[in-house]
Each structure stands twice: as structure tokens, then as C-alpha cells.
């Protein structure tokens, strides 16, 4: 150690002179002859010899005599190889004070999320899951943040997640770990699921809290939402799927309590009968909770997740998970009722696909105060129902021949275990059916002309009226963007293309964390746009000025003249001339 300090002292002493620094600078370009240095510095031979003696003693340079035959009396001066200009990393241990946050770029996603959201609310939510005695646990906020990192960046394996958090400084900082902190083992997650978080309630509460923050900041309004179900294949092999016959208890579908209560008040209501039937289906011995679905675009063993998205910024406001053999129309009303109860948000309009075109869904949306825009199913199988004209004010159908088919009562159909509204023609009009030109087309029974419609047909009909409006087309476009688009992103980037774990509540946990990851990304993006409100106001002002300018041109020239001028210069090379309109 002492020799090293002595060597450094000689080196600093050698460099503490102007002439010697100039010599070192000249030698940095390569070896030189002594006469070249004398000529460059303008010093005497004795002065150069003095400087060279000091530089050679410190080991910085060396001399080589008789290098060139044509200059036998000139020494060649060069840097020693050991101290050449090639850099070498100093491996000596250093002590330094590092602020990890300063190493994270300002535009990093995790930095934006951490600046926008205070995750300390998780302590209050997690408090009931921890005992008052025993050893201190891992910080629950760190645990949740590590899971969030996995879903934000699509890290499917929890072993790999621990490795990535250990190596990535941004992940370390976001999760609350210092450079010297040891990252918890991957078994921490599985043990917490098995012993502490045995359900997905805490993750649902975290999602609801984030959505409420979005509501407070104006990112979520609830004015227009879209909802749909996403099929998640189970994490099972084909060899584990078996065909079974199970006993199933069937009855009328329980859509909503308010809906059932309204149905009981109608004439002809009877309590539904519970029937036990044998049903052939498929199950997995590996994951008994999953169900089998066989539809056009959804087929296989897995789960169904119902998600509702606000269309203002694409924030997912509700997530529920069921077996895949559940119908989406059976669960959507309670799903929306739960959102209104837990988020406290009023939903005004909702867009749904044709899978929800059920009378109970239409009426349930009205009871919830939501205006539904649902894609309609064709009635091609029922000629009379398709061609008969419905009069909602008096609740009757008018057949193609102009006869009334009046509402009689509410009936219960045992084969389907559903209630329906029975519309029948009066006795006086039945006599004319056999001689009617539409008799064969209507395919009437020998008793009377009748129509079996949904138990909530008036609400069903009101949705049909909205089907052809411009608002419906807008809702259909928004559904394609924010519902199908969100599912695509969740599958591609946030680990929802296939279930990773097994069991209904654990798949629900995956759906919640995946939706939470997408919400955080869209939330920080929406808030960043809000921060640039001045730029938005300037753009809005420019657009407003352009609109007024165009209206003035139309006022002076007339609409037809403007259209003719634009068409005249519609070619790409002449397009710029179209904005110059002569008065």
C-alpha cells in the first residue's frame, strides 16, 4: 500500500510543471524524437534532460536510443506500455451515496405511476389479514407492487419476477427496495396466497380504489360504458379433460332482485319449478373449477371474465370472473349493480353485443337507470313475430292482415324454464284466420294466432327502436375500440392470454391485476394530457377559428360554389389551391 502512494506522489510531482505537461501532451499522439520536443518547446538540451529524468523516474515515459540509423544521436521518447492511454477499470471497492430515484428517467412508466398514486392505502386494506403477534412480515405494499410490475411488463413466472426486480434498478425503486436490500423469495407469493390472501377481495378493493381516484380526477365519468366477456383458457392439458354426467338443478334465471320483484307483480305469475336434470359436459381433473364453453369464437375449458370499461379514457371500472359455461347475459346485471354499489358512479349509457339481447337484460338496465344500446338478433325463425307490428302504447301486436293480437297473461314455459308474455287474437278475429291470405305464411296452430314474446318485451322493443339510431352506431364503434381493444391489450401485454394459476378466485386475482395494470397505464396517460391543457386550449382555439373562417367563406360564396372549388382542385398537386377561394 505504501509503495503505491509513493508512486502516485512521484507521478503528481512530475505533472506539476508546465513544460512536463506539454511534453506529456505531445507524446499522447505517439513517440517523438528529442529534437522534435526541443523544437516544439523552445528549451535547451539541459532543461529537456532535467524534465526527462523526472518523467522517467515516475515511470511515465521511457527513452530509446539509436532507434533510427539516420539520427544516431537523438533519443526516442515514448509512453511506457503499462501507462498507455488504453483505459482500464479500477476494481477497487468504493464507498458512495446513491439516490436510486435520480437514476430513473422522468418519462419512465413506473416513475409516472409512483408520482401520481400513493399506494399507502394498501396498509389499511391489508390490516385484517395480519396477526397482532409473531414476526414482522414483508411489507404488503412491496408485495403488491412486485405483482403489479409482473403484470405491467408481462413477466409470467414469479421466479423470473424476483430475478428481474433484483437486477432492474427501476423495479427495485418502484417496489421500495434499496440497492443493498435482499429481494424476497418467489415462495413468498404462493405462501401468501395459501395462508393469507385466500380470496381475491383485497385485489378487488385495490382496483375499486384506483377507479374512485379516476372518478375524482375526472378521468372516469360513467356517462358511456361498454361491457363484454373475455374467455380465458384454463392452465390444463388436454389429457386432464374428461367427459362427465352431472346432476344439475335448473329453474328460472335469477337476473336481478328488482327484476324478480317486478315479475311477481304481473298477472299469471307462478313460482318457478326446480328441476334436477342430467347434463353431459367436460371437466378437468387438474382444475375442477373451470367450465366448458362451446361457442363460435369461444370454445374450450376455461373461465369467463366480465369487464366493463369507461369510454372516456378506457379505464376498466369492473371485473368479475365465472366459470366459462355461464352465459354473459345471466351475469351482466349483477355485475353492473356491484359496480354502482362499490364505485358509487352513475352509469348513463352502455353498449353490449348481441349476446345480451335478452328481454330481462333490457328491463334490468332500465331498472338500474342505464340506457342500453344492444345489438339485435334477427327473428327469422318466427314469421308472425317478425312481420307483426308492435304498438307499445297499448301493448299489442298487429298482424299483417290488420288484426290485433292482445296481451293475455304472463306464462311459464316448463321446457325452457322461462317466463314469457302470451299475446293472442280475440275470439271474433280467429274465425277469419283460415281464410286469410297470410295463413300459410304465419304458420298458425289450429287453436289461435298467438305470439310468445319475452316477459319484458316492452323493454326489448325499446332497444329495437334505438338500434337504427346514430347513437347506437357510435356505441358500437366505442365497443369495438374500448372493449375488444382492451381485451386484445390484456391478452397481448398483461398475461391474460391464458390462465397461469388454477382455481376460480386465483383466476379472478389475475384478471383484477391485469385490469389494474392497464388502468394505471391509461390513468397516467390521461393525467399527462390534462397537464398539457394549455396546448389543448390552443389547438381548440385554432380549430374554432378555422371553423368560423370556413363558415364566413360559405356565407359569401355559397355552399355549392365552395364544393365546386374543392372538387376542381381535388388532385394532390393542386390541393393547396383549394383553400384560396376568390370572392
Query: Total helix count?
Result: 22
Helical fraction: 40-55%
**What does the overall shape look like?**
elongated
Structural class: alpha+beta
Radius of gyration: 39 Å
Instruction: State the distance separating the first and last CA atoms.
Output: 91 Å
Q: Mean pLDDT, as a whole number?
A: 82
Main β sheet profile: 6 strands, mixed
Please report the total strand number as a whole number: 16
- Integer tally of domains: 4
Flag low-confidence runs.
Answer: 569-583
Approximate strand percentage: 15-25%
Notes on the structure:
- The protein has helices spanning 2-14, 18-27, 34-41, 45-57, 109-116, 121-126, 140-152, 158-167, 169-175, 187-195, 201-216, 257-264, 328-343, 359-367, 383-387, 427-430, 439-442, 457-467, 470-493, 504-531, 533-557, 559-568; strands at 32-33, 61-64, 76-79, 224-233, 241-250, 275-284, 291-294, 299-310, 315-323, 349-352, 371-374, 389-391, 396-398, 404-413, 418-425, 450-454.
- The N and C termini lie far apart (91 Å).
- 27% of the residues are buried.
- The protein has 22 helices and 16 strands.
- Helix 7 packs across helix 20.
- It folds into four domains: 2-83, Winged helix-like DNA-binding domain superfamily/Winged helix DNA-binding domain (Arc Repressor Mutant, subunit A), CATH 1.10.10.10; 101-198, no CATH class; 199-531, no CATH class; 541-579, no CATH class.
- The strands form four sheets. Strands 4, 7, 8, 9, 10 and 11 form a six-stranded mixed beta sheet that branches.
- Residues 569-583 have low confidence and may be disordered.
Brief rundown of the structure:
The protein is of the alpha+beta class and 583 residues long.
Amino acid at each position: 500500500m505504501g509503495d503505491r502512494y509513493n508512486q502516485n506522489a512521484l507521478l503528481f510531482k512530475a505533472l506539476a510543471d508546465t513544460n512536463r505537461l506539454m511534453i506529456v501532451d505531445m507524446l499522447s499522439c505517439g513517440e517523438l524524437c528529442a529534437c522534435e520536443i526541443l523544437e516544439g518547446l523552445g528549451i535547451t538540451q539541459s532543461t529537456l534532460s532535467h524534465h526527462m529524468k523526472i518523467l522517467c523516474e515516475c515511470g511515465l515515459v521511457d527513452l530509446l536510443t539509436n532507434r533510427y540509423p539516420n539520427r544516431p544521436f537523438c533519443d526516442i521518447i515514448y509512453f511506457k506500455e503499462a501507462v498507455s492511454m488504453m483505459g482500464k477499470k479500477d476494481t477497487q471497492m468504493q464507498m458512495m451515496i446513491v439516490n436510486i430515484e435520480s437514476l430513473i428517467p422522468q418519462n419512465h412508466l413506473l416513475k409516472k405511476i409512483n408520482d401520481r398514486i400513493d399506494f399507502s392505502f394498501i396498509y389499511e386494506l391489508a390490516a385484517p389479514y395480519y396477526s397482532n403477534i409473531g414476526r414482522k412480515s414483508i411489507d404488503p405494499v412491496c408485495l403488491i407492487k412486485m405483482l403489479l410490475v409482473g403484470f405491467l411488463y408481462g413477466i409470467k413466472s414469479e421466479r423470473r419476477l424476483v430475478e428481474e426486480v433484483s437486477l432492474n434498478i427501476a423495479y427495485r425503486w418502484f417496489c421500495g427496495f434499496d440497492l443493498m436490500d435482499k429481494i424476497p423469495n418467489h415462495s413468498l407469493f404462493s405462501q401468501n396466497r395459501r395462508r393469507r390472501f385466500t380470496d381475491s377481495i383485497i385485489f378487488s378493493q385495490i382496483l375499486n380504489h384506483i377507479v374512485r381516484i379516476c372518478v375524482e380526477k375526472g378521468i372516469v365519468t360513467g356517462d358511456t360504458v361498454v361491457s363484454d366477456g373475455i374467455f380465458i383458457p384454463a392452465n390444463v392439458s388436454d389429457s386432464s379433460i374428461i367427459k362427465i354426467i352431472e346432476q344439475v338443478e335448473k329453474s328460472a334465471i335469477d337476473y336481478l332482485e328488482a327484476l324478480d320483484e317486478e315479475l311477481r307483480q304481473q298477472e299469471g305469475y307462478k313460482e318457478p319449478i326446480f328441476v334436477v336434470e342430467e347434463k353431459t359436459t367436460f371437466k378437468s381433473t387438474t382444475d375442477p373449477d373451470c367450465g366448458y364453453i362451446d361457442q363460435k369464437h369461444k370454445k374450450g375449458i376455461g373461465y369467463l371474465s366480465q369487464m366493463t370499461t369507461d369510454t372516456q379514457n378506457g379505464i376498466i371500472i369492473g371485473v368479475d370472473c365465472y366459470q366459462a359455461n355461464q352465459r354473459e347475459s345471466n351475469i351482466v346485471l349483477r355485475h353492473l349493480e356491484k359496480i354502482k354499489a362499490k364505485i358509487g358512479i352513475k352509469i348513463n349509457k352502455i353498449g353490449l353485443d348481441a349476446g345480451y339481447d335478452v328481454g330481462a337484460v333490457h328491463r334490468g338496465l332500465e331498472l338500474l337507470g342505464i340506457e342500453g344500446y344492444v345489438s339485435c338478433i334477427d327473428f327469422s325463425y318466427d314469421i308472425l313475430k317478425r312481420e307483426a307490428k308492435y304498438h307499445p302504447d297499448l301493448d299489442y301486436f298487429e298482424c299483417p292482415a290488420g288484426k290485433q293480437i292482445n296481451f293475455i297473461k304472463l306464462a311459464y314455459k316448463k321446457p325452457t324454464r322461462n317466463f314469457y308474455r302470451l299475446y293472442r287474437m280475440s275470439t271474433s278475429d280467429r274465425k277469419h284466420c283460415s281464410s286469410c291470405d297470410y295463413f300459410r305464411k304465419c304458420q298458425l296452430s289450429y287453436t289461435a294466432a298467438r305470439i310468445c314474446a319475452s316477459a319484458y318485451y316492452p323493454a326489448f322493443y325499446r332497444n329495437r327502436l334505438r338500434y337504427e339510431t346514430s347513437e347506437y352506431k357510435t356505441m358500437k364503434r366505442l365497443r369495438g375500440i374500448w372493449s375488444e381493444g382492451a381485451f386484445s391489450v390484456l391478452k397481448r401485454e398483461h398475461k391474460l392470454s391464458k390462465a397461469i394459476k388454477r382455481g376460480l378466485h386465483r383466476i379472478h386475482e389475475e384478471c383484477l391485476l391485469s385490469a389494474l395494470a392497464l388502468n394505471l397505464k391509461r390513468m397516467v396517460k390521461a393525467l399527462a394530457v390534462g397537464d398539457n391543457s394549455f396546448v389543448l386550449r390552443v389547438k381548440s382555439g385554432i380549430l374554432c377559428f378555422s371553423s368560423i373562417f370556413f363558415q364566413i367563406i360559405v356565407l359569401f360564396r355559397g355552399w355549392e360554389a365552395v364544393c365546386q372549388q374543392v372538387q376542381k382542385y381535388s388532385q394532390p398537386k393542386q390541393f393547396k389551391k383549394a383553400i384560396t377561394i376568390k370572392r
